[in-house]
Amino acid sequence: MRAAVLHEIGQDKLEVLDDVEAVGFGPGRVRIRVRATGLCHSDLSAMNGVLPQPAPFVPGHEGAGEITEVGEGVTGLKAGDRVVVCWLPACGACPACRRGQTQLCLAGFMNAGTPNFRRPGGDVFGFAGTGTFAEEVVVDAGCAVPIPDDVPFDIAALIGCGVTTGLGAALNTADVTAGSSVAVIGCGGVGISAIQGARLRGAAEIVAVDPVAARREAALRFGATQAVSPEELPGAKQQVTGGEGFDYVFEVVGRSATARTAYDNTRRGGTLVVVGAGAMDDQLQLNMFELFFDEKRILPSMYGGGDVLRSYERTIALWRAGRIDLAGLITHRVALAEINEALDQMRTGTALRTCIEI
Description:
The protein is 29% helix and 26% strand.
């Protein structure tokens, strides 16, 4: 089968090969024919080494498709079921799951160290234990979440990561209150989803911050009340909050510099939500006096900060009701053979989300 492979960490292009085999099928596992997958910035971060991932590997973790085969012991799933790929499945038994914090379950991360694919030259891993830049993937049954027939594969793929992460950051982690002021730093697919979540919660002012003009324009269509470049943020802070700072600031870039900017633009007693996935050696510096004196809440948000399956259901309900726009997030479409075009679109910021149709 065909799959897009990164041979070594640090390479900026993927090679689409037709000699890749999805491996690991057996008890408790399912085989999925991937139909659509989104390109998430985390895929780029894994390619360049910001996020740890053994190589060679097949990127992609935001996917949807249909089950072609189920292994022994799998219940509730059958061949022909339409599913979204969940890259962070809950085991249901660990301390985090028992506390109801299923997004902190580490079972899914354990899969990242087991090869998902094989080529004549040896084993190939799948990013985040999945690897959806492939025609087919074998995953634990918990990674295959059934979706209703009226949810297209491209929409379902977005729900598998970016939309769930951004919406959840606003609805679960921050619990944005009506009438509040919000700033979102980084307005790709995840940031736009956070904007939609803040709008749903009734935020009075939502300022989108991004260096790319096309993304700023898009943010306004999705609910931002104004959109500014990073250099214009101080003026927006003064105009919207009288210089006090925003009630909620979402950092959706994953860098210490933007996290520091987010902190500085959060009002005393306000909430900074860290959504971006950054590097382990990128240190955020805060002095102990400001940490105490400002009493700002710093809330990391992992995969939307809530039960993933409930978040999927909520997102589908909101989409059906027309309360959120998911189709508008897909600004570009490419075939698997054109995957490197999608990478360029992500790097230049010209795409909110590129859908790879497989």
